[in-house]
């Protein structure tokens, strides 16, 4: 790394990435907007990449920024933990229900690794999980209805902390008999009928945003809240289902399906872990966040 590059620039980068806004990042860091813009300018010059692109009132990370942010966040947190020092903590004498906000896809990925270990080693810790829409995320964390949420990157207030977990990519799932298999083009995709998995009031859909760049849209014949039901349906009829790659692979041995790449580019969807600032020093919450990160690293998410 160039000797004159200020490491504090990466703190600014993380703040803008977490908040999706230069103004909110400046407020969180207690510095001015011009200072944030200047820091980004230096990093843009260093990496020869814009890092963020304005989208309405938000700024969206570029593919290059998405590719380096995990390393940036990990490095910053390693330095911060070194300065704080380790705290002695024995989870075995704690009794607590931890409330998680996870979609069904994330439950199926995290729980087979997480829950058997908890049952064996920390039976005093119990887990309650439910799905949460993005408008509910911050209020539920603030009200302590939820302790931790793992979901797609969404705009949040300065009171909500977040940590990058992984990126979701997408594929098309359909029955082997579906005519789309023989002609997996963007035109065939746009004229086909689709199943859509989406929570009530959820406004995030990177697939439709990417498709709109081609002045096309999906014809939705079924909308539901669970991928298991949707995959079961599309395996038996001519609907297409666009879903996260890892989850689709889990279904490949359960249903007679074809898994195909999308016929157009869709940016990977960043997935973050969220918690409220009042839980920063809650050692049980810290312990569970670390367990979830361990599972994420073990599964190479």
UniProtKB/TrEMBL annotation:
Organism: Alteromonas marina
Molecular function as annotated in GO: DNA binding; DNA-binding transcription factor activity
Pfam families associated with the record: HTH_1, LysR_substrate
Isomerase recorded as keyword: no
Superkingdom field: Bacteria
Domain (HTH lysR-type): residue spans on this chain: 5-62
Homology family: Belongs to the LysR transcriptional regulatory family.
Sorted UniProt keywords: DNA-binding, Transcription, Transcription regulation
Protein name, per record: LysR family transcriptional regulator
